Amino acid sequence: MQMPTILIPTGAWNMRAGITSEEVLDAARKAEEAGIDGLFAGDHVTFYGNGNDGLVNLAAVATVTERAKLMTSVYLLALRHPTPVALQCAMIDQLSNGRLILGVGIGGEDKNEWLACGIDPRTRARRTDEALQILRSLWTQEETTFEGKYFQLDKVRMQPKPMRDEGIPIHIGGRSDAALRRTARYGDAWTAIWVSPRRMNEAREKIDEWAAKEGRDGSKIGLGLQLWHSVDADRDEARRRLSKRMQGFYQIPFENFEKYCPYGKPEEIAEYLGPFLEAGMDHVNLLAVQSNQEGVVEAAASVREAIRKVVSA
Hints:
The chain has helices spanning 21-33, 54-62, 82-95, 111-116, 124-140, 177-186, 197-213, 235-250, 266-278, 293-312; strands at 5-9, 38-41, 44-47, 50-52, 69-75, 100-104, 144-147, 152-156, 170-174, 189-193, 222-231, 263-264, 283-288. The chain is an alpha/beta fold. It has a single domain (5-312), classed as Alpha-Beta Barrel (TIM Barrel), CATH 3.20.20. The chain has an 8-stranded parallel beta barrel with strand order 1-2-5-6-9-10-11-13, surrounded by 7 helices. A two-stranded antiparallel sheet has the order 3-4. A two-stranded antiparallel ribbon has the order 7-8. α9 packs across α10 (293-312). The termini are close together.
C-alpha cells in the first residue's frame, strides 16, 4: 500500500450565514501549512436552495496558497456551456501555476437545480460527455470544431491555455458503471463516493478493460474516494454531527449513507480506509464534518497520521 494524496474541502463563504471569506481563505493557508496535499471545492448553483461556484471558490484559494492541489469535487459541468468553462479553468490553472484538477460529476439529486438553469436533467450525462471532449480539445488544439447534439463549435480558437500541454487533469466522480465508462474514455482518475472496497476493486477491472477499448492505458487512470466522515473521540457525538449535516444537505435519512460514512477516532477512519488502499486508492477527499473549518484541518492532519500507520504496518 502507498500513502494516498489527501485533500480537504475549502469550505464556502456566505457572510449572511456567518461564514466569511477570510475564514475560508485562512483555513486554506493553515491546511497548506499543515502539509495537507490539496483542497477541493464542491459545486452547486441552487442545490435545495444552496450554491457554491467551485471555480470561483478555487480561484480565491489559489491566491493564498502556493503548493496545494486545487480540485473541484465535483463540478456540474452540464449546467454550463463548456467554452467559457474551458477558459475559466485555463485561467485558474495559470493563476495557480498548474495546480488545478477538474473533478466532474452529473449530480441530479435536486432536479429543480437543473430546471432553474434551463437544463433538462435527463440530458445531463450526454451533455457532460460532449462537454468533456470540447474542454480537452480547446485546451490542447489550436482550433476546435465539434458537432454534437447539445454543443456545436466551428473553428473556435482559445487563449490562454492551461500550463500543461495535455491540459488540466480531469477526475470523474460517481459510483455507477456509466461514471466508470466516462472515466475510461475521458478521465485521468475516478473519484468514488458511497462505495465499498469490493466496488473499487471491480471499478479497477472495468476501467482497465474499457480504457483498453478506447486505446488508453487504464493503469495510468487513478482511483480515489470522497469520504463523508466525522472525527471525535466521542463516537455518539461524531455520528450526531455527521448525520445532522448529511440529512440537512441531501434531504435523505442518514441511515441510507451510514455504512459508507465512518465516524469516531482518527484510527477508526484510517482503519475504514485500509481496504480501499489495498484496492489501489491513490487519493482521498476527506470531507470531515467538524464544528468549524479549523477543526476540518485538524481532523485531516490526525487522520493522515493514522493512515501512515496503516500503510507502514
